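Something for you to look into today, if you have time. Could you write out one complete protein record for me, on any chain you like? Leave the record below and I will have a look.
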Amino acid sequence: MKLPSLIIGLVLGAGAVSVQAQSVVKKPLTHDVYDSWKAIADDSLSADGKFLLYGINPQEGDGVLHLRDLTQASAAKQFARGYRSAFTTDSRFAIFQIKPAFATVRQAKLKKKKPEEMPKDSLAIHDLSKGSTQYVARVKTYKLPKQNGEWLAYHLEAPLATKASKDTTKGKAPAKPAAKPAPKPATGASKQDPTELVLRHLPTGQEFRFDRVTDYLFSSKGSTLFFVKAETDSLHKAGVHAFNTATRKAMPVDTGRVSYKNLATDATGQQLAFVASKDSAGKDLRYFHLMHWTQKDNRTKILADTAYKGMPAKWMVSEHAQLGFDDKGERLFFGTFPRPMQYEKDTTKLEEDKVSLDIWTYKDPLIQPMQLKNLEREQKRSFLAVYDLKAKKMIQLATLEIPEVALNPGRTSDYAVGISNVNYLLSVGYDSPSKQDAWLINLKDGSRRLVSKATRGNPRLSPAGKYLYWYEPADSSWKAMSVKANAPINLTRALKTPFYDVQHDMPTLPEEYGLAGWTKEDEHLLVYDQFDIWRLDPSGKDNAVNVTDGFGRKNNLQFRYLSLNPSQRTIPAEDKLLLRTFDWKTKGSGFYTDYVTKAGAPQKVLMEPYSFTGVQKAKNADRLIFRRGSYTMFPDVWVTTTSFATPQKVSDANPQQSQYAWGTVDLVNWRSNDNIPLEGLLFKPDNFDPNKKYPMLVYFYERNAETLHNYRTPAPSASTINIPLFVSQGYLVFVPDIVYKDGYPGESAYNSIIPGVQSLVAKGFVDEKNMALQGQSWGGYQIAYLVTRTNLFKAAMAGAPVSNMTSAYGGIRWESGMSRQFQYERTQSRIGGTLWEKPMQYIENSPLFFAPKVETPLMIMSNDNDGAVPWYQGIEFFMALRRLEKPVWMLVYNGEAHNLMQRKNRKDLSVRLSQFFDHYLKGAPEPAWMKKGVPTLVKGKEYGLELIEEPAITTPTPGQPPATTATAVPVNAGK
């Protein structure tokens, strides 16, 4: 296919700019460049492959939505602040929302405007053939039918109320009357403001408007628009309505109730389901009915409520469950739940008289913190039920004993799979992966059959519903069982190839490499080993076949199936398949092709020293888009064909990168102290000179070598160093891989990292007197451990470190409410036993007990809302080092989580990281926060970011006292 000259011109132009930039002296990255670095979002192709949409957005500020006509050289448009973009299915229109300007929103916040007065989104409707755009102000949301390009529905914001002004000037036009505010919903209506909904016929521009709407839904083919109206007064009742797009007529589906929720339609649009209640929102317990409407009868029926046959005693219809039809429209799935206990309000007690406490008991299935974390979810929990529309009966599928029930894709099977860990809840928190039981449930009569007891896998139903299948970690095998059989079949027992993660180095059972999917009619299951793809016969009759013929293992290539059709449920075995490919040796990637049923090695399409992401195909055309990037090249959008012939770059999101010193990255190798071969990444500054010595930062978190070709964006830090920033400023950055031995996590880190550092020092270009460590969480722990073992490093920063495994072991991960025990016994901390089974290993791996050995200046970050690592772990280490008069600082960002979430705090941390390392490794002046601290009296007024020069002593003139000078260097960041 001949690619458009527009794209070729863009690439040639970009090349010319790059050549010119090479002659310019490049500047180092600084903290003030973050906001200018952009990301690409919402890239998509029209179904005919002619048009491309993509957004280029700064980290903070106003983005731009780009629209390209890939068939014409000059057809390119830009829309300021465009986002949430989509093409209509007929490729005739592009629809997107437009954000209000960043500066306008900021000013409104400064003026403390009410939410309804804040600037709102607009909607853009762009005609691709005419090149014209229409805009609609104050739009909340829009929706398009999945299979119809003619219709668009958009929901407006409430109109702003304006005050009418007096007409005091004779001869001038009278002032416009005040806009009517949206009517307020009656008690019990949806919390969402009822506002106007507009349905637009895109080819003609004809519009239909409906007031008081709170929710809306298109049928897949766009034949009907369903919407909910709220009650605003006695004359304007709540109800569900349907608009037929063929007849252009609206009709009521159901009216007169207080609340309507959870609209769901079948594939044809001829059936609608929803739940409705006559109870007001003020009631403690509201009763909902499951409602069903058919276009054929134009009649609504109640299918289920508390009194209907099939509903368990004292159970009721859930208002929180999502409704759904099966593909044939013969079954309707909905949720139920046990009627909660009702308690009378005690009006004899004051609030101050009521006791508030949590009672922990050893018999609780889940510990109290987990119960509290799950409280809202449990209050909204629903249990799956089905209404058989042909047999006209309800069947309860999920129960208190089997709370989770899953269906096959399309919900076409007569069976469902029930999963329950109810019998194993007491072990949650220290047994991983946890156990669960599995049942097959018959959708026709609700009968159930136990098929797997205490499995550590996750049984699922195949697409056609013929088989139950799962990977069983207990024996490292894939299993399948016909829904008509009584026992599962081990599909991989006879194979010598491991299907578990061979790099797994935690004291727990390893997980599998995953699966590609199923072929049609459940004929075969395709699963992965470390390198290749295997075809398994779920019936067990045929032997397993290596689809990729062992080519991956022989050549150190990893093959993974890449679907180009997001809507397909099965893998087309007869078609040529595109395989995403990764080279374990070079870390390069690309694509091969292969067939499921044809013998022969995979065929190479493209392999390059880049990373490839975001592959999408036009639905009805031979055109692909993808992102291609590396450490030195931002992953812009590229366009090509399915053969990847002559790919061309389309976007240019960050041309400013050419102005900055960026650096390069190399893959390096060494052996651990245990003689294990290891890999790592070495980032080097531009114009690297092996005869010079450079300061070096060492950052790590388990394994990172496979990210060799990943782009790293200059951005403020959530917890770790920004590698491009430090490399640009003349640092080496070393990222070593680590392998672990059960029971010795700290020693394993030492045995992996230190030899790697020493191997680089031996090359002669590392300034061994100016090296530092930095890491977060698990990396932070390892740094805290390393500084008790070695004085190789001039400084270290540990983010959210565990310093005392003995106290951390009995703690809680507050973001989930889970006990921390599992982490030490079975997962990342890798001790492999309880505190009382292996007390010495808990102590030996705890930096706190060896604090007197620390000589390295240490900076800690432990935030007071950290839900992963308790911040008292940082406090314990800080207090120990402080008492020992070791140089130590601790940053506590108030209200912040494990990793910083607020951009202002990320910017602040980034500056402090630079100041800390620049001071120790480059001899830069010490900032005030390090030298003097920041007392709480001036908290929020002073930040201590100014640099303090040491007094310079000059030789005194005889007879005069010595003179000293001191210079304060201001720093603006963080203020």
Observations:
- Residues 661-924+943-953 form a domain with the Rossmann fold fold (CATH 3.40.50.1820).
- The longest strand covers residues 207-218.
- DSSP finds 14 helices and 59 strands in the chain.
